[in-house]
Amino acid sequence: MLGQALAFAPNINEAVISAGRLMKLFNRIPNMHNPQDKPFNTEDKSEGNITYENVDFEYPTRKGIPILQKFNLHIKKGTTVRLGPLRSGKSTCVQLLLCYYDPLSGGQKQRIAIARAMVRNPRILILDEATSALDMESEKVVQEALDAARSGRTCVTIAHRLTTIRDANLICVLKKGMVIEQGTHDELIALRGMYSDLYMMQQIAANFTIPNKRN
């Protein structure tokens, strides 16, 4: 029995070390946090308006490479906004809003994150590629739930599949950290700019099929 127990000694030691790291993480107090007398899930919340005013940002590990430059954006409460396209600084906007940085994966993970957001009954709902890792059937179910959940809330959505944000009240197109187009889906399509080009490209790709080879 003793010999069998000793065989697990290395695993126990690794578990103790891992537990210590977790406790250090749990006890860490970030520079920006909710004070104990004002926890997140109280009636004393934001009205739902979001404002970015002359925001400049670069990642701490990538000094000298600006991600956002003089970024200005006002989102009214109760509206749904889509930020894009790829590599334009949209995810950085959301990360700053969530205080992942101080101012200077998978389908299962997304489902858990969505469920946690709904339990908190927030006034501001932030969806960063909420359905990107889901299959088509799961995406449809989750998207319908999200469409219902955003009712009456300020909602910021980041999505590469533009068909998922056609009903947004305001769609913002970012390039090199700046808003270059904004409007509804129909307005941006009529503008025939970057959004229109991206949307048409996605529609063509979705409808494209490779013909079967003939013998």
Automatic annotation (TrEMBL):
SMART domains per the UniProt record, alphabetical: AAA (SM00382)
A UniProt-annotated Pfam family: ABC_tran
GO MF: ABC-type oligopeptide transporter activity; ATP binding; ATP hydrolysis activity
Natural source organism: Eumeta variegata
Keyword Protein biosynthesis in annotation: no
Predominant cellular place of this UniProt entry's protein: membrane
Endpoints of the signal sequence: none
Membrane topology term: Multi-pass membrane protein
PROSITE patterns: ABC_TRANSPORTER_1 (PS00211), ABC_TRANSPORTER_2 (PS50893)
UniProt-listed GO biological process terms: oligopeptide export from mitochondrion
Location(s), subcellular: Membrane
Official protein name in the record: Multidrug resistance protein homolog 49
Keyword Nucleotide-binding applies: yes
Alphabetic keyword roster: ATP-binding, Membrane, Nucleotide-binding, Transmembrane, Transmembrane helix
Source domain of life: Eukaryota
GO cellular component, one term: mitochondrial inner membrane
ABC transporter domain sequence ranges: 1-201
